[in-house]
């Protein structure tokens, strides 16, 4: 491998390319559970939390914990902050995250970027495509309630449904 050479403030392009290729290929930190490999030991440590269930990043405002620091930061921004830095150029509505803005913009543009590989149907949201694949083409996995056997195309919908069996109503009405 070439040494990185900087002369007059510029990096030799060939050396930079060699260094980038080396960095991308050299991954000595291997996961003992799967075939993933990492160039940094810290990345392997983070990855291993998938198997250990370790969630060392705790939210100071609620009881949630996360395996990644970035997930905690995203949680704080989306759940505990009222800051909405992303605004819609069509109507001015403000959003906490760029993904939420992107999904919203589809309502103005009529874009349907998710297309079914089996038929000509197109959808605004990926989750709607997944539900279509399950219902129309029997492709994918249903999430089934172990209590009443009701089926859901989305695990989040099943989790919300299960709260009903526990007698919990997670949404509070502002009017009553």
Class of secondary structure makeup: alpha+beta
The 3D shape can be described as: extended
SSE pattern: EEHEEHEEHEEHEEHEEH
The proportion of strand residues reads 5-15%
Features:
176 residues; alpha+beta; Double Stranded RNA Binding Domain; 3 domains; two-stranded antiparallel sheet; 41% helix; extended; disordered N terminus
What does this structure look like?
With 176 residues, this protein is α+β, with helices and mostly antiparallel strands. It has three domains: 81 residues, 2-Layer Sandwich (Double Stranded RNA Binding Domain), CATH 3.30.160; 30 residues; 34 residues. It has a two-stranded antiparallel ribbon. The protein starts with 5 loop residues before the first strand and ends in an 11-residue tail after the last helix.
Question: What's the helix and strand layout?
Answer:
Layout: E1 6-7, E2 10-11, H1 13-25, E3 29-30, E4 37-38, H2 41-52, E5 57-58, E6 65-66, H3 69-80, E7 86-87, E8 94-95, H4 98-109, E9 114-115, E10 122-123, H5 126-137, E11 143-144, E12 151-152, H6 155-165
Antiparallel strand pairs: 1-2, 3-4, 5-6, 7-8, 9-10, 11-12
């Amino acid at each position: 491998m070439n040494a990185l050479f900087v002369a007059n403030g510029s990096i030799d392009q060939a050396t930079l390319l060699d260094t980038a290729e080396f960095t991308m290929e050299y991954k000595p930190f291997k996961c003992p559970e799967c075939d993933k490999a990492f160039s940094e030991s810290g990345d392997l440590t983070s990855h291993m939390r998938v198997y250990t269930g370790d969630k060392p990043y705790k939210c100071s405002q609620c009881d949630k914990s996360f395996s990644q620091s970035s997930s905690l930061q995203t949680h704080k921004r989306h759940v505990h902050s009222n800051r909405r830095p992303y605004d819609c150029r069509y109507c001015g509505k403000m959003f906490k995250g760029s993904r939420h803005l992107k999904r919203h913009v589809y309502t103005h543009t009529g874009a349907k970027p998710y297309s079914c590989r089996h038929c000509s149907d197109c959808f605004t949201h990926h989750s709607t495509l997944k539900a279509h694949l399950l219902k129309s083409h029997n492709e994918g996995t249903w999430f089934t309630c172990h209590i009443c056997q009701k089926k859901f195309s989305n695990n989040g919908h099943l989790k919300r449904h299960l709260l009903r069996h526990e007698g919990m109503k997670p949404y509070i009405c502002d009017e009553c």
